[in-house]
Design brief:
The complex is a heterodimer of chains A (426) and B (164). Chain A has 21 helices and no strands. Chain A is mostly helical. Chain B is mostly helical and 164 residues long. Chain B has six helices and no strands. The chains are: A mainly alpha (426), B mainly alpha (164).
Amino acid sequence: MIAFLLISFFVFLAAGVPIAFSLGLSALGGLVFFMDVPMTVLAQRIFVSMDAFALLAIPFFMFAGSLMGGSGISKRLIRFAFALVGSIPGGLANVAVLSCMIFAGISGAAVADTAAVGGVLIPSMIEKKYPKAFTAALIGMGSTIGIIIPPSIPMVVMGGMLNISVGKLFLAGIIPGILIGLALMVIAYFMAKKTGFERDDHEFSGTDLWNSFKDALLALLLPIIIVGSIVGGIVSPTEAGAVAVVYAIFIGTFIYKELTLEKIIASLKESVLSSAKIYLIIGTAGFFTWLLTVQGFPIIVGNLLLSITTSPTVLMLIVIAILLVVTTFMESLATMVLLLPVLYPITQKVGVDPIVFGLMVVISVGIGLVTPPVGLCLYVSSSMAGVSLGSAGKAVIPFILSMLAIQLFLLAFPEVILFLPNLLMK
Amino acid sequence: MERLVQKLERTCTTVSAVLMTIMLVIVISNVVLRYVFTSGINWAVEISDYTMIWSVLIASVSLLCTDDHLSISVLEEHLTGIPKTMVKLIIYISCAAFGATFFYSSLQLVSVAGNQTASTVRWLPMSYVYIVLPAAGLLIVVVCLLKAIITVRQQFCDNRGNHQ
């Protein structure tokens, strides 16, 4: 039955059937042909998988992210990033990475960041003669920081599924997210030096920096409010998402005076539709993984992996490799919902820290977002830059290697990941 | 027929957006009540969960109307003419089959729910909460069949155009 489930799923997927329906259909086949249980199980498992308060953070963080453009938050944050790093070689490229890092503190979805940062910076970078493939690759890769620096939708999903503290996961993502951002900036700097798009005729000005900082201050407070309120135990991640939405609407409407009712409604619709894509996958994947679990799939995989190694580091390397391969061909969140219930218990048997496991998963998923053919962030950024996915795919390789290097560094020194959670949360 | 699909899409998106707004209001009210009035809404968590499930299931129908569900469309993109139409038909029929089974399964769930009520809202029967499941299943079937008919009709029009 396990073979039937996996093969039929990939057949449906390859045929172009939506991921959520591919999962549902193959699980349905398994239920009808191999099991003797009432049909109500189908509806019940899907409902139960979606029925989790932690998951409500998804639409809220998507809504907050979507409001950034219309509320004037994006514009101000990018202006601040430009004043800060626009004058160093590869100025706009560095502005793009820094903007992605700041946006990451507001939105929890990488693709939302690709659209928000790319919408403003891709045309400017192309105008300044940055190579299109480089531009698409940089923005695509930079926006994956969106799921590493809190808030992060994959962390919320993982926390809900595996019962790991979302607050700790959020804190654990801060240092790795900053390290990855800095690595991307260093690469952009050297590539700018090497290929000649060194400066963007922008002189550093302390006055500009101060003015842009003052202008963006209220927007810059948003990430602090989100993480601070969760870590301080004031609100749950879901409530923090709702607070972020209200705050973004408030400053966009009353302070920046750029947000209109039409823009709010458009963002609301966009976020509810984006959330539905994820939720339905969570629902049908929950049904699918339930069947796999009933058939003993996690035990089979566990025995297989533990027969290879019992070293936590080697096991995590295998987990990372599996995630990198699967996310290349499958949507990141679906991969998480399918594989984590199988992989997580195995890593716990050999004593891998849940927070370290979580961060390694999120970084792998981030890399999966820029690897064609299913790299959503690269797909969005390359269409925005008007360049083929293949060219952008080649240009993104140095960035992927740098992210992998940081991932391995973090695996070797997990204290870096655990520093903030241990410091701020007991 | 295209208009009917468009209307369904708009209606479902609007209903989902309204439900999400309700959920946002419930969650925010709970936070405000907790910190300003030191009291909370005990049903906030459960009801906002159910509201979200309603919202996303209805929104998933909108996504079918616009072919916006996450999928790997490499095969379809590399095909043209009748093979492309055939692949699209297979996709719609597969989704309709799932929708139909989901409809049947969830109708059974609604009837099994009987007198069960939500745990924090005793007057709310779970069958009312579950009713969105068969409704979404039915709408999925309707949309997929409409989209399949539209696809076949477009193929006929293209063929006729080529002959002329």
